[in-house]
Each structure stands twice: as structure tokens, then as C-alpha cells.
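pipeline stage [seq->struct] | target=Urease accessory protein UreD | organism=Spinactinospora alkalitolerans | residues=317
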Amino acid sequence: MTVPPAPPSVRHDAAWYTPPDLPAALRAFDTPVPNLAVGRAGKVGLLELALAPAGGRTRVTHQYQRTPLYVLQPIHLDPHRPDMAFVYLQQSGDGFVQGDRYRVDVDAAPGAAAHVTTQTPTKVYGMGANFATQMVHLRAGAGAVLEYLPDPVVPFRGSRFLSRTRLTVHPEATAVLGEVLLPGRVAHGETHAYDFHRVETEVRAWDGRLLVADQLELAPPAAAPSSPGRLGPFSVLATLYILAPAAARGELHDRIHTAVDALPGVLAGVSELPNDAGIGVRLLAATSTQAAAAVHAAWNRARLHLLDAPAPDLRKG
């Protein structure tokens, strides 16, 4: 079953692109934005993509986009999975600013294979008013392979950001979700100098049952991220969720642990997700380079085990 495109009337409703039930700490920043208010043109980025197999490759069967969000033609760059479509999300601006509201919907039909990423790291600029949000809704149908691995998020001094990602996964699908949080513009003396950063991830079964819920909230003015129980001496946080049928996972847990455990500058934890949904990988690293190496090692190991294909070169500058 695929999700039908959203009707135009819904796309213009603020409830469509505004996260419900905002945390109290974020609501405190909900002040008017001068000059270009929330909801105005250029402040709402929408993207809808439906992908399905056709002629031996996965192709886009539906696309709707509203700038600042857009995508170009998907490419097929993996020689080991020539059917897989690689989609690069792009922004016409240079990052999130105060009052931005984004929503991304990606539906991978049964048998589709798609990798969704970003062209560059996501910048979240400092904000004198309000905040920015992004909602991502992903669906992976029976036998589909869906990877959502955006580049790291870079929160600037004074930024406020909420990211909500929901994956609905068929029991016969394979999905990989990843997220990386950098400390900010370290070269400018900014290390976790943002006001508020919250990431919520939710995985649901095909029938709507909640399988996995994970939340990360950092508010440096209230509690230093470097304190024990948060990031400690590390500055970069990365998470990987690998969803696959239990029969296909086998010894994947141990193989991922072996792949990331010995990497320098990285503290890694690999665990089974609730409800036998898959495997979760949490990584703390001292630098962005070390975090990228650890994420790639875990992703590569998962791909080799589940798809019999190594992680490809994504050809980013």
C-alpha cells in the first residue's frame, strides 16, 4: 500500500508542516518573527516523493516540492545495487533560520530501493526569535530497502531546532536511519553554544504499532552537554537505526560491534532495539572525521550483511 499525495488544501494548512505537541522548552521561544513571519513564502519547505521499481530500477512516481526544499533527478551510482535510486535533498537557502518549518515525506513502494541523503551538512543558524523545525515521514513497503542518511547537523550559537523523524516499516522491509550532531562552528569558538536542540525518532510497524521511540534533547544554557551522563569528554554524537527482519539480521549485532569498537576516538554502543525491530548504534566521537568513519563502518557492515553490497561512494564534494 502506498500513501496518496497530499491534497493542495492540506499542504497550505499550518498543521501539515508544524509539529504538534511542542515541548515546553521550545514553546518558550515561540515569539513573532520580524519581517518574514512563520508560514510566509520561503519559510515553509515541503517535499513529497514516491518511489517504485520500474524497468529494473527504482524511479520517482510522484514528486511535489516547495522551496526552500527541492531535489534533482535521482541517480543510480551503486554498481552492486544498480536498482537503487540515490536522492539528494537540497535547500535553496544555506540552512535553517528562525521560523522555518520543513516537512519531508518519502514513500518507498514494495520492492523499491532508495538512498536519501543531503548534499551538504545542515546548518542551523542563530535565532533572535522563534525556532526552526523539520518533520520527516518515511515508509518502506514489503521488500523495500530505504536508507535515510543525511549529512551532519551543525547548530550555530543561539540556534533552536526540533527534528522529528517517523519511519513506518513493513516486516519484510530493510531500513537504515542515521543522524549526526556536530558541536557547532568549533573554529569560531562555538562548541555546543546553541540554545536548544531536540531530535525525536519513532519507528512504527505497518499496522501502526509503536516499535521504537528515541529522544535526544540538549539545552546547553540549562545543562552542559559535556557533563557526565550526556556527552562527557566527547563533542560529536551519532545514531544509526537498522531495521530488518530478524531472520536476516543473524549475527549483525556482533559484526557491527566489532567494526566500530576498535576505531580511535570513538565510544560505541550497539544494542537490540525494542520489539525485535532491529539494531541501534550510538556513537560518541571526539571529532567529525572520527564520527563519519564510525557511521560509515557500521553502515558498510549492515549493507554487506543485509544486502550483500558494500557502502558506495556517494560522490559528495
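stage status: PASS
auto-comment: Residues 42-236 form one domain. The helical segments are 8-11, 14-17, 24-27, 246-249, 252-261, 288-307.
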